[in-house]
Structure formats: C-alpha cells, structure tokens
Amino acid sequence: MPRGPAPILRRLLCLPLAPAVVPSRGGTGSAFRLARGLWRGFAAERKREEGGLTVVLDIDECLVHTTFEDDYNFRQKEYRPDAVKAIDQIEITMSDGERARVNKRPGLDRFLKTVLEEFDTYTYTAAMEIYARPLLDTLDTEKGLQGRYYRQDCRYHQGLYLKDLDIVDKADPKRVVLVDNNPVSFLLQPDNGIPVSSFYDQADDEELEAVLQVLRLLSAEEDVRPVLREMYHLRDQLRPLSKRVLRDSPSA
C-alpha cells in the first residue's frame, strides 16, 4: 500500500485540473489571501451544486490515535501501539464511564473546518458508536457533518467490518471518496479510495494537508474513479485480498 497521497499529489498537479487557485500552505500576503478567497468561494458554490464532492472520513489512525483505560472491543481489531505521546490531546468519557485519551493528527482542526466548508462530509468508522459518538461530538462542535456511520453500518464478513459507500445518503458513486488508513475499508469500492498512512502520534505528520490538496483537485472531476484508479491502483493491489474475503459473499 502507498504511504499516503503526498507523492501522488505531484502527479496530479500535472493533470488539467486548474490547481493554480489552490493556496499553498505557507502563503502570505494579498495574493495568497485573494487566491484563498477565490478558492473558498468556488468550493462553496461547488458544494451547493448537485453532484458536489462527497468526502467520507475514517476516524481511528486516520484522524486520531486513541488509547482506552480498558479496551472492550470498541474498535476493529488491528495492530496499534499501546503508548500515546501527547501532542494535541483531548480526553473523552463514554456513556458507560470508560475514558479515553485521544491524540489529534497534526492539522486536524484546520482540516475538518475546511472540508466541512468545501465538501459534503461524513464519517464512517468500524468503531462502536458508544466510543465514536462522544469523540465526534468533541471534534465536530459546529455539527457540520452531514452524517455519521458506525460499526453497525458496516457489512460484517469473515470477521471484518467492511465499509459500503452505497449507504451514504445521496452520494453519487462518481463523486464520493473514502479517506482511510485500513486497506480492508476499500474492498467494496476500491476505485473510490484515498489511502493514507496510519497515524501513531507522529508530531511531524503532514498527511491531512496532502489529503486536502487531493480533495480540491478531485472536486473538479466529473468522475473521481478513473483518477483515483490511476493514482493508487487499489483494485489491483487489493485483488488477492478481495478474492479471499469476498468470494463467498452473496452481495459482493
């Protein structure tokens, strides 16, 4: 699996997607502010249009890294380091009293604010709602998410929680993307995936900034699937896993 979108972004910049209005991260001055204002105006107008880009975000190891006092299967089982180095940390308490420490991926607040402004944004996690809901309540204080999907919204098959983008409200298959760190999440719709590296408290992580640039470039595409297919080749990379996991799935 590729580490993340940053190397692919350089390839995308060669495509005729008019990236000139996308402001650079460190830009300053009147020209930068003008470009940023023009882009946000364009993005807001595009969001209002029917067929605007729908962005579906994973949570664990994509946006945050969480540790629990006692982990009662709140999340899908996968390797995670136990230690959490506090960088930008919050604490949440679940309805059963269980507490968790959550490290936000660098740039998360800015990233969420921007994607909520520019795209129809949802979250989709294989984690249990008892954990994910209070976390999202803390992250999404303005209630800007169009919807939240949890473990019960996944398709459970062979011990895995598969994410099905068909459940996302009013999402056009040509205009929906899933941002996720787990390859399993892309099995049902591999041509709609944006894979990112797993976040385990790296203070110098810049993945979300790269993802944002990719999303802005994709927003100009009538159909994101051919572009993402060329960028990541997920269908080819996941074919062995797909055959093994989905071969006996009646709805695969």
UniProtKB/TrEMBL annotation:
Keyword Signal: yes
Listed GO MF terms: phosphatase activity
Keyword Signal: yes
Domain FCP1 homology residue range list: 48-218
Entry-linked Pfam families: NIF
UniProt KW keywords: Signal
Signal peptide positions (record): 1-20
Name of this protein: FCP1 homology domain-containing protein
Organism from which the protein derives: Lotharella globosa
